[in-house]
Design brief:
The chain is of the alpha/beta class. It is built from eight helices and ten strands. The protein has a seven-stranded parallel beta sheet with strand order 1-10-9-6-2-3-5. It has a three-stranded antiparallel beta sheet with strand order 4-8-7, covered by helices on one side. The chain binds 2-phosphoglycolic acid. The site of 2-phosphoglycolic acid has 7 residues, from loops. The site of 2-phosphoglycolic acid (PGA) has 7 residues, from loops.
Length: 245
């Protein structure tokens, strides 16, 4: 059974996620790490960068890989997944050679996915994989119906993901496909963390943890990963049958 931890608010949640990741890295300084872009983990990035600045955390030997990227969106577009990590990488003093990201404007997105699969397997899999959850239950760009056994691949985005995804961009942006790590990467990671905050996520969190195990709700994959850790704030946990602080 996965571990579920509920925190009183977003700040304490982010501190808890950063501590979990930091403890893993302290034991495994050469970790391969995948951190989600998106709004959910922004506070975790601030906490991790503060730990680096304070000398409590060393990331100099870690490698950082992409979780996902919008196809057709260049890395310099502020709404790209790569650009959303920029402040974290700078603040945590991560060097360019430590970073391996999907290129959303590659002429051959399939080969971007294949290269990433090779890189991750050459390191023996991911150490830490931190993901958020979409309102339709997606993890990264693994949309409803995606096999739990897939590695990195090119995905067709659901209408809801295309609509919600506009929030990252300053103007209307054409989105239709993405490159994403797969759910198999999540279940194989040594420390798979699913993080959610806010009332908007409460319904999908309940369904993912207590609903039927189905590829129609990709996040239900956590139900079969005994070492997965689900980190929630109280509002994201508010629709669950039992909430423990
Ligand atoms: P969010 O995105 O962190 O911006 O809510 C999560 C997701 O869609 O996976």
């Amino acid at each position: 059974m996965m571990t579920i931890r509920v925190f009183p608010d977003y700040n304490s949640l982010c501190r808890g996620v950063a501590d979990l990741i930091g403890a893993h890295i302290a034991k495994n300084p050469s970790s391969m790490i995948c951190l989600a872009s998106g709004h959910t983990p922004l506070g975790v990035f601030i906490a991790l960068a503060a730990d680096v600045t304070a000398g409590r955390l060393q990331l100099g030997k870690c490698r950082f890989v992409s979780l996902d990227e919008w196809i057709g969106v260049p890395p310099e577009n502020p709404g790209s997944c790569r650009a959303m990590m920029k402040d974290f990488f700078a603040g945590a003093r991560i060097r360019d050679e430590q970073i391996h990201f999907f290129n959303g404007v590659s002429p051959d997105p399939e080969s971007e996915a294949n290269k990433m699969n090779e890189l991750i397997s050459s390191y023996g899999g991911l150490d830490v994989m931190l993901v958020g959850i979409g309102l339709n239950g997606h993890i990264a760009m693994n949309e409803p119906g995606t096999s739990f056994y897939r590695h990195a691949h090119v995905s067709k985005l659901s209408p809801q993901t295309i609509e919600v995804g506009q929030k990252y961009f300053s103007g209307e942006t054409s989105l239709s496909r993405g490159i994403t790590l797969g759910l198999r990467h999540f279940s194989d990671a040594k420390l798979p963390i699913l993080m959610a905050n806010g009332e908007k996520k409460a319904g999908i969190i309940r369904l993912s943890i207590h609903g039927p195990f189905t590829e129609q709700v990709p996040a239900t994959v956590v139900q079969k990963i005994p070492h997965a850790v689900v980190m929630l704030d109280q509002t994201a946990a508010s629709a669950m049958p039992r909430v423990q602080l």
